[in-house]
What we know:
By secondary structure, the chain is mainly α.
Amino acid sequence: MNDLVLRLPTLAGEELLAFVLVAARVGGLFAFAPVFSSTLIPLRVRVVAAGALALAISPVASRQVGLPAGAGAIAAAIAKEILVGLALAFAVGIVLAAVHAGAALIDAVVGFSFAQIVDPFTSVQAAAFGQLYAMFATVVLLLTGGDRMMIAGLADSYRIVPLDGYPHLATLGAIATHGFASVFLLALELTAPVVIALIVTDAGLALIARAAPQMNVFVVGLPAKIAVALALSAASLPFVATRLEGGIESSLLDALRLLGR
């Protein structure tokens, strides 16, 4: 009993250190990941949610793990945890970045890119279709359990990179490179039907302008392209939802696989 009382300060210090390390990794999720980092959620709520999640994960993450000792080792461990958390959040955030990139391409072809407003979910300026696709992607992420998938991936990351483990810097670079490389491919996959239809519409308008020069194609063309974009977007949203669900899962799994190298 006396030995336990004497060890209480040490045990409390270890638990506090484990909580701080776990909170550093969880903080990356609430700083960059979709939904979790939304400015619609008050900062206090995000801090409390991150603390509660770290409190729930820390007993499992710190089990049979050697915690760092000394100021330098602790600072290095905290920096490592922040980088791992940001890497996981970046892998999922890249899917939403692809949505914004694809929607921006539609807005540019239609002509909506001249009038941009701030997206409330990401605080990024976006035009009409950017807003539509961003809100749709957020709804898909929540309805398909993407938030639970991100939390499960975060918890699973402690099996791959424990508190006393360090990933290679090349691994973090590979996650970033893989993410940037997949942005444009995923953006085209999500919006290719709409973009192709708009290009065909532009080609048709060009032929009409050539055949009937007296017709004001600019006046006729803008409503026509808006109608085509709305119709094709509505028709392709179910396929976009399926691709988004698969994209979020595959991005998270790829990040965990790269961390495990």
